[in-house]
């Protein structure tokens, strides 16, 4: 089944929207959160757990998988889904963000970007074409073109210059992808860049719309800028994007972010935070975050969240989880990761229901009030 | 239901035997292997996974749990089973082995043993009575008395002196346990000691039999002595133990050990090795061990063991598991632990069937030949 997106409802009080993405590996109701599985595994949790807790799409990373285990292994495995035993959908990031974070270890030109592996220092060269080609081997359902992700703050002149090149790379990516015959198998999204400059963001959107992608990513945000600036950029950007295409905000995914960004028209999110903080013992609840290692939980025999029905909350107490983290037991990472991802799935479910029922803004206020009470 | 043991079959060619242990938390077919959950968790795996792969009894450690999280927490949780959400049986070791491994940090007297915590250096004093009392709070189904576990090699005079004291401690443990009213709720085993000295082992067995325990542990083995010596000690010891009581060989549990020790009349095993090596990427197969990190598995798309039906083998390849270990991904520890414990459960199942069908020695030879072929 080719990639598709259908909008089913629009919020009357904001840009929030309900939709569904169709892929050959299942349907994804939007707004949706994608757990991050950078190295072909969502850290600390098995694919069957992800299925059970309700994940329908996960993220993986082109740069990381290209370096390790390498394309030979994944190709011979029959693609990334088979390699990692995940039959749900996969979105792969191009690795632009990772490569452009390698300060001093990369060298960018019109042709592409030369970089040194963070693992063994070996040299590699990525072109827009090569990045699409790697994702053909990965076989991910949604793929990203190579882009330059700017740090915050960035110089206007460089941002303008970089955006023009990123747009040319987008064009090369689309051409390569169309000529490959995989256009309908794997959906290539365009990535909106332009730093924190509203005119450049507008320019970026216009250029990408002309190329007519099946979906649009918003990149270069959540890179250290104040929240207000991120919201402002979204306020400028999303209304310009075609309503009938999904919008993916890259690297954003705290509970409070969902509300602010969905309100501004975002459909898809990914973020390492919910799983990363879980491995350190920080868990999400309907009343805000809990740091399980804190001594106040030593004799706390309540579950993480009394309203949560996940495997962790149905079976284990805060006192037990605290013990696991204090005693450095791996099971803590598993149980906290399970809970955080389950929690986010339920949160998104409730957000979707609130849009369906025309009470999104109400639900947002209610949720934000509750988590700020702690 | 009170603790019970029923012998159902004896091997004609060896001391091997089939039986079943009954506890209020379920039946355990013997010979049985007990995964080790020292700190109230079998490392890297959840209780529901243990249930699924067939574990019926696990081990936990009095010394470790007393120090962390401490008895206050476990008592308030309602005991160890509730604390860790495990409704199968639990056997707790007394901590004798751990305390006597604390070289220079412990001071032994007739009354008991003073030791310093390996976690924070705080001082503690264990008496035989206190160790039983702690296990009353833990609520484990099978409990161990405080004993002195000798290193290898040990001096005969000291071994004789130590054994006499360990026997007096066993007597004090039994009296305290009987007077507590928990005699029928929790089965206290006697621990055979005596170093590698056959006459002392015989003396130990005789003294313990007189005290009439519901089961017997064989301690002080697998502490660095050659395998032949361990076998010799068992050859001397197990035939003297009452046939109608279970025999637990402490700290032993490699696949090849099962055969040698079951042949010598052992019913129960525990060992950290199968789970510890799993976390480093070494897995068990019907053809011997596999070190997954080895480069030969880079493009090996077979499961760990083609004859294994575990979650790991049904879904993941050696190449993928190797990638997880090379990339330092926690999921590797989970999947390898799951496999190793599943493998051992199936191995014990097959050993039990071979005793039932009078072909234990055949099966032993067949298995040992197969694993030595690699």
In short:
By secondary structure, the first copy, chain A, is an alpha/beta fold. Chain A has helices at residues 47-53, 62-67, 71-77, 80-84, 96-100, 128-138, 156-179, 198-211, 227-237, 255-262, 273-279, 311-315, 318-326, 330-356, 360-372, and strands at residues 4-10, 17-23, 26-30, 32-34, 57-61, 89-93, 106-108, 113-116, 123-126, 142-143, 187-188, 190-192, 216-218, 247-249, 268-270, 282-285, 288-291.
Summarize the structure in words.
The structure is a homodimer of 374-residue chains. The first copy, chain A, has 15 helices and 17 strands. The mean pLDDT of chain A is 96. The first copy, chain A, has helices at residues 47-53, 62-67, 71-77, 80-84, 96-100, 128-138, 156-179, 198-211, 227-237, 255-262, 273-279, 311-315, 318-326, 330-356, 360-372; strands spanning 4-10, 17-23, 26-30, 32-34, 57-61, 89-93, 106-108, 113-116, 123-126, 142-143, 187-188, 190-192, 216-218, 247-249, 268-270, 282-285, 288-291. Chain A folds into two domains: 4-271, Alpha-Beta Barrel (TIM Barrel); 278-372, no CATH class. Chain A is of the alpha/beta class. In chain A, helix 6 packs across helix 7 (156-179), helix 11 packs antiparallel against helix 14 (330-356) and helix 14 runs antiparallel to helix 15 (360-372). The longest helix of chain A has 27 residues, at 330-356. Chain A has a five-stranded parallel beta sheet. At the A-B interface, helix 3, helix 13 and helix 14 of A face helix 3, helix 13 and helix 14 of B.
């Amino acid at each position: 089944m080719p990639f598709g997106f259908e909008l089913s409802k629009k919020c009357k009080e904001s840009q929030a929207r309900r939709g569904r993405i169709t892929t050959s590996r299942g349907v994804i109701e939007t707004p949706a959160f994608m757990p991050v599985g950078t190295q072909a595994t969502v850290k600390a949790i098995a694919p069957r757990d992800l299925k059970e807790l309700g994940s329908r799409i996960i993220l993986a990373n082109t740069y990381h998988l290209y370096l390790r285990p390498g394309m030979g292994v994944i190709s011979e495995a029959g693609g990334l889904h088979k390699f990692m035993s995940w039959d749900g959908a996969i979105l792969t990031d191009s690795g632009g963000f990772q490569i452009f974070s390698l300060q001093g270890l990369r060298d960018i030109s019109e042709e592409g970007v030369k970089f040194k592996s963070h693992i063994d220092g070996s040299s590699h060269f990525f072109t827009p074409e090569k990045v699409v080609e790697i994702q053909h081997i990965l076989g991910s359902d949604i793929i990203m073109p190579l882009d330059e992700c700017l740090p915050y703050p960035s110089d206007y002149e460089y941002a303008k210059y970089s955006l023009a090149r990123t747009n040319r790379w987008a064009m090369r990516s689309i051409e390569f992808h169309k000529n490959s015959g995989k256009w309908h198998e794997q959906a290539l999204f365009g990535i909106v860049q332009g730093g924190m400059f509203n005119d450049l963001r507008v320019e970026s959107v216009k250029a990408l719309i002309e190329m007519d992608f099946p979906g649009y990513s918003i990149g270069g945000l959540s890179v250290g800028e104040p929240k207000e600036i991120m919201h402002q950029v979204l306020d400028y950007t999303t209304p310009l994007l075609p309503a009938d295409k999904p919008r993916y905000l890259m690297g954003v995914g705290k509970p409070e972010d969902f509300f602010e960004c969905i309100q501004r028209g975002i459909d898809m999110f990914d973020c390492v935070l919910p799983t990363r903080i879980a491995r350190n013992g920080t868990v999400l609840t309907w009343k805000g975050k809990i740091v399980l290692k804190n001594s106040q939980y030593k004799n706390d025999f309540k579950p993480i969240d009394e309203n949560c029905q996940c495997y962790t909350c149905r079976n284990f107490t805060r006192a037990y989880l605290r013990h696991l983290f204090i005693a450095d037991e791996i099971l803590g990472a598993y149980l906290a990761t399970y809970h955080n991802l389950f929690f986010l799935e339920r949160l998104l479910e409730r957000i979707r229901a609130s849009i369906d029922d025309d009470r999104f803004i109400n639900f947002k206020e209610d949720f934000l009030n509750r988590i700020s009470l702690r």
